[in-house]
Amino acid sequence: MVKKEAAEKVIKKLEQTSKETADSRPGVSIIIDRRKALPQPDFSHYREAGSYPGSTYFFVGHSYNVEHSCCSSQSNLKRKNAIKKALQQSTKNNTLSVKSALEQPEFLAVLSRFERDWLGRLPEGALIGPAIDQDGKKIVQSFTVWRKEQRKSTAKSKQNEKVAAGAR
Q1: Which pTM value belongs to this model?
Q2: What is the domain extent for residue 72?
Q3: Contacts of 49 (CB under 8 A, 6+ apart)
């Protein structure tokens, strides 16, 4: 009997805390905007270079850490040229779809096994573009990966729920 009373007390306290939290932030959704929750770098250098795909894309990262590259200068030159050639085929915002990039044999040949696997697993709509460091300098042996936002915004989700409820 003591366990049941203790459990009820804990449940009551949780409900009270939950209610207090909801009351202290009226109108605030429990779903947090991912852009605020996940750290994103400063994109001003990408904007200046015309390589920012827009706010509907998330910065995933650069293709590899240049500082710890173990490749010879010959393979770095080959990689740099292959990435440059692939990005020359880019359209708007100096970006290229991952699918199009992977169809280029020269680009595919300079990727590590990890990069091939990583790019192959990205959802449709993912882009690559030039890599730019925090000082605004292009990283020629690397490329940046951008992923399209897949979650719907909270306002749109609520609106869709209302429409779906009305259709029933």
Answers
A1: 0.63
A2: 43-148
A3: 94, 130, 132, 136, 138
